[in-house]
Amino acid sequence: MENELEDIICMNLNNKQTIDLATAFIDAVQTVSASINAVDNRLGDLIEKLPNEDK
C-alpha cells in the first residue's frame, strides 16, 4: 500500500512536470508565432512602399 501511494505521488509529480513543460513549450511557440507575424506585417508594410516596378 505504501509503495502504491508513493507511485501515485510520483506519477502526479511527473504529470505536473509534463504539463508545466508543455505549457512552457506552448508559450514559446506563441511568442515565436507573434514575432513571425510582426515581421510578416513589417515586410508587408515595406513592400507596399516599394515603387511598382520593384514589386
Structural notes for this entry:
Helices cover 87% and strands 0% of the residues. By secondary structure, it is mostly helical.
Secondary-structure-based class equals mainly alpha
What is the typical, i.e. mean, pLDDT? 90
Q: Which spans have pLDDT < 50 for at least 5 consecutive residues?
A: none
SSE order: H
Work out the strand percent.
Answer: under 5%
Overall strand count:
0
Alpha plus pi helix count:
1
The Cα radius of gyration reads 24 Å
User: How much helix is in the residues?
Assistant: over 70%
Query: CA-to-CA gap between the ends?
Result: 73 Å
Sheet with the most strands, sense and barrel status = none
How would you describe the shape? rod-shaped
